[in-house]
Write a structure and sequence with these properties.
The chain is α+β, with helices and mostly antiparallel strands. Strands 1, 2, 3, 4 and 5 form a five-stranded antiparallel sheet that branches. It is globular, with a radius of gyration of 15 Å.
């Protein structure tokens, strides 16, 4: 019985709760990769994300990996989470990772975005 969400099967982690409280977010898309594989790779080395191929949502909206950044105004606290979508339907997500500004900058550079 899931009364008031107390026994919710997929309870949010502390990182996810903290990320949702941050005032800003940015989303970019990568070529699709299974969530299990992504979690395994990023768990071993978060910089593996730099090897993922960026994709334009409109060119590949049938299946993609959505990268969501949650951050504060001065970029001193940044969280990253990847979500897998097929036909614009959510299929799963990775755990939430706390990252440094330099990694966020490197990821966004792949999409032609420069942080100031």
């Amino acid at each position: 019985m899931a009364l008031f969400g107390i026994f919710k099967k997929n309870a949010k982690s502390e990182e996810e709760r903290r990320a949702e409280l941050l005032p800003r977010n940015k989303k970019v898309q990568f070529d699709p990769i299974s969530i299990e594989r992504v979690d395994e790779q990023l768990g071993a080395d978060i910089n593996t994300i730099l090897e993922y191929a960026p994709v334009n949502y409109y060119a590949a909206k049938d299946s993609y990996l959505l990268c969501v950044f949650h951050f504060n105004d001065d970029y001193s606290e940044i969280y990253l989470q990847l979500e897998f979508y097929t036909d614009d339907k959510f299929k799963g997500k990775t755990k939430c990772y706390k990252i440094e500004r330099e990694l966020m900058q490197a990821i966004l550079r792949k999409f032609g975005v420069n942080l100031t």
